[in-house]
Amino acid sequence: MNRHLLSAADLDRDNALLVLDTATQLAALTDRAVKKLPTLRGRTVVNLFFEDSTRTRISFEAAAKRLSADVINFAAKGSSVSKGESLKDTALTLEAMGADAVVIRHSASGAAHRLAHSGWIGGSVINAGDGTHEHPTQALLDAYTMRHHLAGGTGDLSGRRVTIVGDVLHSRVARSNVLLLTTLGAEVTLVAPPTLLPVGVEQWPCETTYDLDSVLATTDAIMMLRVNRERMNAQYFPSAREYSRRYGLDVKRMNQLPEHSIVMHPGPMNRGVEIANDVADSARSVIVEQVTNGVNVRMAVLYLLLGGAQLGAGSELDTPDPAAAVLTEATR
Questions:
Q1: Mind spelling out the 3-state secondary structure of the chain?
Q2: For the chain, what is the domain count?
Q3: Is 0.85 surpassed by the pTM of this model?
Q4: Is residue 3 part of a domain?
Q5: Full domain range(s) for residue 94
Q6: Do 247 and 304 have their domain in common?
Q7: pLDDT tens, position by position, 177-197
């Protein structure tokens, strides 16, 4: 693993599989009476969120606490940032407090890279979403979920067809998923109206189409993206009703999917716009499971970046009882 996790492009196939395999092994702890590990005892993880978040912030907090790290939650609202403090001064303050890792979400694309390469922070930086750029841990938990349902949990995603539908232009989730899933061998198709596809998307390692119905029959996993109205400064489609008619996933469209296919959404959902209630709550939906998987994946990321363990072939985690092996490694 690298020192930071800023982009899905930071992960080659081996490192991506390392995170997913580690998350699978850490997930075994959720069935135990005591879910905490002492691995990161004495370490400090700061959640530095300049944008509102529920799932990602709580997920990182839960992950860090299960690894026994001290967690500081920083929200821009109510802090010195609201008084005009810069990212640099905030970072220097956190460094002075001894932050070992900073999980940052920011409205500006590239903010995580700036923080990681500025010299302001001595610890690891994890990108929890920067503008419309990337969200690598979301892509990891999505791949983890697909792997569980489509490849037996530890198998390969090679040849699996993944369809990502909706507001690609303003989505950091879409870019990270395209990069990571392609690295893992999946075939990705983006579906969106032309106004919601970014300039240069033809250079991405994926296919694009404007016709959702044309790809449903061959889709193994379909991911619906939220319309990011808070990032829009223009009218990108005629109306929510028209958007839903052309690009929403309703029961009729869901029934065109193969029997084994799954329905995903990074959340939060706009029910009735990109996804119908009956679809979001159906047996094919793994949306709630994605949230659960997010904790396991983010535990794996923190464990690998801060735990000092090089978890590869032949490590103690390759034992019949992986949870016990993690405990052994963590208590050294």
A1: CCCCECCHHHCCHHHHHHHHHHHHHHHHHHHCCCCCCCCCCCCEEEEEECCCCCHHHHHHHHHHHHCCCEEEEEECCCCHHHHCCCHHHHHHHHHHCCCCEEEEEECCCCHHHHHHHCCCCCCEEEEEEECCCECHHHHHHHHHHHHHHHCCCCCCCCCCEEEEECCCCCCHHHHHHHHHHHHCCCEEEEECCHHHCCCCHHHCCCEEECCCCCCHHHCCEEEECCCCHHHCCCCCCCCHHHHHHHHCECHHHHCCCCCCCEEECCCCCCECCCECHHHHCCCCECHHHHHHHHHHHHHHHHHHHHCCCCCCCCCCCCCCCHHHHHHHHHCC
A2: 2
A3: yes
A4: no
A5: 8-135+289-330
A6: no
A7: 999 999 999 999 999 999 999
